[in-house]
Amino acid sequence: MQKAECKTKPLIQQRNFRPEILPEEWRKSMSSRSEDTGIQTQHSEQKNLTGLLNLISIAGLAVCAILAVWAYKSGILKSVDTLQAFIRKFGYIGMLVFVLIQIVQVIIPILPGGISCLGGVIFFGPWFGFIYNYIGICIGSMAAFGISKTIGRPVLRKMFSEKMIQKYDSWTQKDSKFLKLFALAIFFPVAPDDFLCYLAGTTKMTWKQFAAVIVLGKPFSIALYSLGLTTAFRIIFSV
Fold first, then answer.
1. How many Å apart are CA 208 and CA 189, to the nearest integer?
2. 231: which of 7, 136, 149, 208 is 20 to 30 A away, CA to CA?
3. Residue 162 in contact with residue 50, Cβ under 8 Å?
4. Alpha helices in the chain (DSSP H)
């Protein structure tokens, strides 16, 4: 009986192992290893999600290309008038679907914003196209800001590359500086607006300030995008 008891004691001691009895250097080593493992896991998750978003973006572009080829062969792209006549067949459903696409492409950047703005003007004409672009982009921007306000900086690292985050992170060092730079970036299409909407949500910017910048700044950038891309589209297809 004594031998059996002796054999079980080491097992009991192993189960009751307490790391706090180790020297301080050992505990620091164990803690740093667990932190490194956690950081590696976060980086791996970020790369996986960023890769998935890139694949979705490529898939979105491929779908657009396929639809363009189909529309060209079907005669829908014979002229802007025939394309708009085709879209009008869907009535309000076509408008609602387009606005929804604009909202989604801001929250999850699956298509370049310029392509969707161009689509709005070509599909619905300059005035209605501008209005639908404006509504969809504003709602999507508000949603991106709200998501970032709720989740915080982790959403940046999950959706965007570390290179982009570091490039614009210096803007957030001073709240007043970020507000001015953000307003300029929204007014002039010179920066990734979708990312900046998420980045704004991680700062002390209020809903009132953000809404004012988006509502007042987006019309000019959307009009500039639409005018420039529509002009280029007409030149290309008139050749």
1. 22
2. 136
3. no
4. 2-15, 24-73, 80-88, 92-107, 113-124, 126-151, 154-159, 162-169, 175-187, 193-201, 207-238
Instruction: Give how far the C-alpha of residue 116 lies from the chain's centroid of Cα atoms, to the nearest Å.
Output: 15
The dihedral over CA atoms of 13, 18, 24, 26, expressed in degrees to the nearest 10, equals 70
pTM, two decimal places = 0.66
| Burial classification of residue 69, based on how many CB atoms lie within 10 Å of its CB (0-12 exposed, 13-18 middle, 19 or more buried) | exposed
User: At which residue do the structure tokens 């180790």 appear?
Assistant: 22
Residues 6+ positions from 210 with CB-CB distance below 8 Å: 142, 145, 197, 200
CB contact set of 144 (below 8 Å; sequence gap of 6+): 106, 107, 194, 197, 198, 201
Tens of pLDDT, residue by residue over 13-72, are 445 545 555 556 555 555 555 444 544 555 555 555 555 555 655 665 566 567 666 655
